[in-house]
Amino acid sequence: MTEMKKVKLSDAYELRQISIETFKDTFGDDNSQKDLDEMFANSYGMDQLKKEISNDNTDFEFVYVDNELAGYLKINIDDAQSEDMGSDYLEVERIYIRKNFKRRGLGSQFMNYAINSAKEANKSYIWLGVWENNANAISFYQVKGFTPFSEHIFVVGSDKQRDILMKKSI
Length: 170
Fold this sequence. Notes:
Elements: E1 2-6, H1 12-27, H2 33-43, H3 46-54, E2 58-65, E3 68-77, E4 89-97, H4 106-120, E5 125-131, H5 135-143, E6 147-156, E7 159-169
Parallel strand pairs: 4-5
Antiparallel strand pairs: 1-2, 2-3, 3-4, 5-7, 6-7
Helix pairs in contact: 1-3
């Protein structure tokens, strides 16, 4: 059984732990430990996460499978977006799933939640950034109807990496 739960301030430590675990599992082999540590201190620091959780234009959702935390979603609207896309867009900033829970439909569940959230907020588009070397994620997003439209730089520590920006009309 799966259940989604809105992340609250009291969940910040748990959010930090799963953020570090899932990012490292997915991208750890492609980044130096120094760069990972720097990113984790900045992007996944407790103060930063609490600030993001408190932002009314950001929504974090945990997903549980049989009462075990399996992953999380982060979506943003308006000024919380990582790029200035304007008021017609909702950003899917993170879909992170623990490796033992991948390939169980949780990514699709998160994407459906994001699309429904965009519709409820009267957005016309949903967009995201995906690392150019993450072939599995790119394929997943293409199956979901996303198409590339631009790119941006995503920094891990001191390493500048290219993300493909993809969007979908809703």
